[in-house]
Amino acid sequence: MNEIDFLPDWYRTGKRRRLSYGKQYIALACMFGLMMLWNFISLNSISRAAAKLAQMASEHSTVQNVSKEFTRVKNELSELQDRARIVGEIDSKIDVASVLAEMSFLIDERVVLRKIELISEKFLDKQQPKVNSASAVRVAGTEPDKRHKMMLGNVRFKVLISGIAADASDVADLVRKLEESPYFCQIYLSISRNKAMQVFQRPVISDKTPTGSKPASENYQVSEFELSCYLANYVQSKL
């Protein structure tokens, strides 16, 4: 038996249209909800990224300040090292006043010095060629040779002493005192010879002194010497 549909076509068409509109509304609502959810998630991510970026900017500023401080300290350290190197090159590690005071203590009135010269020498290995030495200090001597440049820094000092003594025993006594002194080492007597010296006496001027008289003189036998030694302010080890 066939059913008879009494509903008109326009009713069925409108019903289908309303169902289609409902589905579209539901789909649009779902899409809107998804868009709102995505917008919320995006805003949350952007907020967290902005906060992290601000934190990174603060950390970058701190790291930059630390880097600047490190660079400053490094430059100061480099400058101090350069100064220490320059001071090490300039410092000869001797006290000239103390050396002269020690020599004044060792030399008695029977010895008269003519020249004291301190010559700086570089420390050399046996395989290295010998270089010219340079005068560092001269006392009661001739003018230094300007062609020689003063050597400073890691050097040792050779002392040249020349003069006259009343007797050869006074020269030997001076050598003994230098050997016993903690200031000097490697004493070497290069010249020791007798020498005649004429000493003029100062005349006493009075009314009875004849005009044109020559001062009296006496001949003395003295000992002329020249010796060398090194300042004992270093220790040289054999490699």
Task: Report on this structure.
With 239 residues, the protein is of the alpha+beta class. It folds into 2 domains: 8-90; 96-231, no CATH class. It is built from 3 helices and 5 strands. A 5-stranded antiparallel beta sheet has the order 2-1-3-5-4, covered by helices on one side. The longest helix is centred in the N-terminal third of the chain and has 82 residues, at 9-90. It is rod-shaped, with a radius of gyration of 52 Å. The N and C termini lie far apart (128 Å). Residues 134-142 have low confidence and may be disordered.
Low-confidence runs (pLDDT<50, min 5 residues)?
A: 134-142
Rounded mean pLDDT is 77
Number of domains: 2
Counted beta strands: 5
Architecture blueprint of SSEs:
Blueprint: H1 9-90, H2 96-106, E1 111-122, E2 134-139, E3 155-165, H3 168-180, E4 184-200, E5 217-231
Antiparallel strand pairs: 1-2, 1-3, 3-5, 4-5
